[in-house]
């Protein structure tokens, strides 16, 4: 078993480091000079579709949320997101001309499988984003985009999540092309960013070392807030989920703008706030949200390119002018942070207590 970890301490660590290779596989054959290609879906199949519903559980749900921002922005198609276990029981009203997208690493999650069956029964077009070919969900779906992430062993999903997000980005762009809704300049900017994404996900030894050192300061306290806006809100949720899964510490992800409506009631020095402060995305607004927390004495860890004097700790990231590049750069940070904290606490990060890799019962 040790050999298969290829020198890494845990499968989770290996899988975090593997992400650039996974993203390269996903882009193979799909990233042209002028356009994105997705051979699995013809433009004619997508064109008549009037809306999209994304449905998933757990980490895959966070990818779905991220995808909803991308699909509305790049394809200009109305997008909504559903947690599979809620969706199937609430007599949902669906757009008969809509596309129902399910996202699942395993392809076997019971609630997600039932959700796609329900959408199919109502006559919607269906698409699965799955990591396992010939899984139950793939067999149910009309169309599939396989994730190409390779086998994921760590119960805490890392490379499957980045694969889901990248695949959704490609889908959004491809759909935007099919509907001709993007300006030439905007389209070119997306393609340039896609070409840069592999480098961004390369773990920088400097950053990993920093997180390793930093982790010892954050083993106690009464909780963690991960906050961000826009695309960085689903990332905040995912950062909190990673930490909870393997460290067993309490964490929550919140939209930074919602702070004042309740989470701020918890703020004090024992509350660790991880602020996802993306230069590309409403930086000043997030900054003022963070300042409010600081005024309540919250302990602040800022993930940012900027200097931020109120932060107790800064995790310096590289500057990018595209939100998705900042997203992937910060994703690596939150994954490694969760892992380093959990390792210091003496936990088996590959086999967290009470959790299963795939949940095939309701
Ligand atoms: C379980 C796993 C999570 C995963 C979720 C959905 O809870 O522990 O890591 O995100 O199921 O799984 P799926 O295979 O459908 O993506």
From TrEMBL:
EC top class named in words: transferase
GO molecular-function term, one example from the UniProt record: glutamine-fructose-6-phosphate transaminase (isomerizing) activity
Keyword list, A-Z: Aminotransferase, Glutamine amidotransferase, Repeat, Transferase
Domain SIS: start-end pairs: 42-181, 214-352
Reaction(s) catalysed (UniProt annotation): D-fructose 6-phosphate + L-glutamine = D-glucosamine 6-phosphate + L-glutamate
Record keyword GTP-binding present: no
EC number: 2.6.1.16
Protein name: Glutamine--fructose-6-phosphate aminotransferase [isomerizing]
Gene: glmS_1
């Amino acid at each position: 078993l040790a050999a298969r970890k290829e020198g890494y301490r845990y499968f989770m660590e290996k899988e975090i480091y593997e992400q650039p290779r996974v993203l390269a596989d996903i882009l193979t054959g799909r990233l042209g000079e002028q356009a994105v290609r997705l051979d699995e879906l013809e433009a004619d199949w997508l064109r008549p579709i009037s809306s999209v519903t994304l449905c998933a559980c757990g980490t895959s749900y966070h990818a779905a949320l991220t995808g909803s921002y991308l699909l509305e922005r790049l394809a200009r198609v109305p997008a909504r997101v559903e947690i599979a276990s809620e969706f199937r029981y609430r007599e949902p009203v669906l757009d008969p001309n809509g596309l129902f997208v399910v996202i699942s690493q395993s392809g076997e999650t019971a609630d997600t499988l039932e959700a796609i069956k329900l959408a199919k029964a109502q006559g919607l077009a269906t698409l699965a984003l799955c990591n396992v070919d010939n899984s139950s969900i793939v067999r149910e779906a009309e169309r599939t985009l396989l994730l190409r992430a390779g086998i994921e062993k760590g119960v805490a999903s890392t490379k499957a999540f980045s694969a889901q997000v990248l695949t959704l980005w490609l889908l959004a762009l491809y759909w935007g092309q099919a509907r001709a809704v993007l300006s030439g300049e905007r389209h070119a900017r997306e393609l340039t960013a896609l070409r840069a994404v592999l480098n961004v996900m390369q773990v920088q030894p400097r950053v990993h070392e920093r997180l390793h050192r930093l982790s010892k300061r954050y083993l106690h306290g009464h909780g963690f807030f991960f906050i961000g806006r826009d695309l960085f809100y689903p990332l905040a949720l995912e950062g909190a989920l990673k930490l909870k899964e393997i460290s067993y510490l309490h964490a929550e992800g919140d939209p930074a703008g919602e702070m004042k409506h309740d989470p701020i009631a918890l703020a004090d020095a024992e509350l660790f706030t991880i602020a996802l402060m993306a230069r590309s995305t409403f930086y000043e607004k997030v900054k003022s949200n963070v300042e409010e927390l600081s005024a309540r004495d919250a302990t602040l860890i800022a993930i940012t390119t900027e200097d931020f004097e109120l932060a107790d700790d800064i995790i310096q990231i590289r500057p990018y002018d595209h939100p998705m590049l900042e997203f992937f750069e910060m994703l690596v940070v939150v994954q490694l942070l969760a892992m380093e904290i959990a390792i210091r606490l003496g936990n088996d990060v590959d086999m967290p207590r009470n959790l299963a890799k795939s949940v095939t019962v309701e």
